[in-house]
Amino acid sequence: MTRRDTRPRRRVSAARSAVAAACLMLGSACSQTVSGDPRPEPAALTATATAPAPAIVRTPGELVLPPERFPEPYDAVVLPPEAVAQAAPDLTGIQPGSRVDPGGCLPPAQDYGPERTAMVVGTDNASRATISVEVTRSAPDLAEYRTYLTECSQVDATVRGITSTVSTVLGDDPAAPLDGAGTLALTRTVDSGRGSGGMTQSMATRIAQIEDVRVTVTYMSFDAAAPDTDNLDRVFREAVDFAARP
To answer: What PROSITE patterns does this protein map onto (predicted)?
Structure first.
């Protein structure tokens, strides 16, 4: 008589016993369904996440008021970079390379390259008066500039043998065209030369600053006529609104 081999059956029985023992140790876990929704692993989440878009940083040329936005009778043009380096110092009355008295009253250093400065100048061809809009990036805090103007309200500047007297008077700060903008107003005269060869340059300026962007709008004339403050203020408001647009 042949003996039947029962070893596989014993192994199956042993396996069943092990499963039963595990269920007894875990209580009811083997008979209940876990509630909830399946969630992907963190690696899957990060693999499909979208990186935030970088902030757009506009150049001064993109922030300066377009010439067609200037009011009549001001015929406006965008200055090329090489002209900006010549025209912008005119607004301070102190040319690069000047020797100044009091010492330490040179205007704050400025980068006139296209990544930092842009200018548009409108000219009244009848009176030769101008309204200029200058936009600068990475400008220092407006409070620092106010301090400089207070400490250097009258400066003698000499360059190429010609001495100019630059007199600056701070006015009441203009109303901010938008929330968060700091503002400043000034009038300035530049008396150059002596006697019949002398010349007087008169300016009225409005300044606004939003973070590191500064907008400077200046009316300039070469006579004793009152400044065109109506159009100056109009251009100032529009220039600040344009520079701060989304």
So the answer is: PROKAR_LIPOPROTEIN (PS51257)
